[in-house]
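stuck on whats below:

***
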Amino acid sequence: MRLRLDPVALMALPAFAYLAASYGWPLLVLLGRSLSGPDGIGLAPFAQFLSDPFSWRVIGNTVRSALLVTLVCLLLGYPAAIALARARGAVQALLLLSVILPLSVGVVVKAYAWQIVLRRDGVVSQVLVGLGIWDAPQRLLFTETGLVLGAANVFLPFMILPIYAVIRLIDPRLAEAAATLGASPVRRFLCVTLPLTLPGIVSGIAFVFSLAVSMYVVPSLVIGDRYQTLATLTGRAFLFMRDERLGSTTAVILLAVAVAVVVGSTALARRLGGGGQT
């Protein structure tokens, strides 16, 4: 019996080998270091880390900030994706360019720009004072609110593009048919548009949350060391504390959170996609 390899699988072998060497092997080394304690291989490093109340505060900061960033991106990105999908011609090209072009700007540049925008005499503070929301200028820099705003600006395209891709596949005649049956605009959105765009929403949430939960540059520059997350604690452990075991432990916990979200969202997206085809 001769073993026959699929040509498609052969085409994927170089990429798989590259990922295994540059990504898989370092992860295995990281996992091994996180499991090595004074008494040998075991879960003692994780038990020691999770027994500290400070560690749970760091985990809470990480998950909460990622959820807030994802929520802001969803609230801003969903209507933007609808507008992008319904635009035509040059207007759609211009809107698409405005979404994709910011991806070419480095995260460090964006973070420093938000430092200027969020300070006490920055644009945000002046606008809120001008609208009468604030009585006097206040700084948003080095606050959780500033962190969420800055991170949402960085990750917003990753919410818009998946939703836009799904909306483009929806037949516009479905909403027109619902309108002819007497459905109001709100009912058409809730019963037709929203259910059909759920796969895109789930994909966008997975993208943004997995990126936000592991962000390092934005928290370091916008909020500083006073607000620790798993990513910043990992960097601090490796770069400043020289504690490879602590850094490996926090990195593995961070990876587990991100992988759980991605795997769960992938399964949910497949279920929603399969339900939409039946």
Q: What stands out?
A: The longest strand covers residues 36-37. The chain has 13 helices and two strands. The longest helix spans residues 53-86.
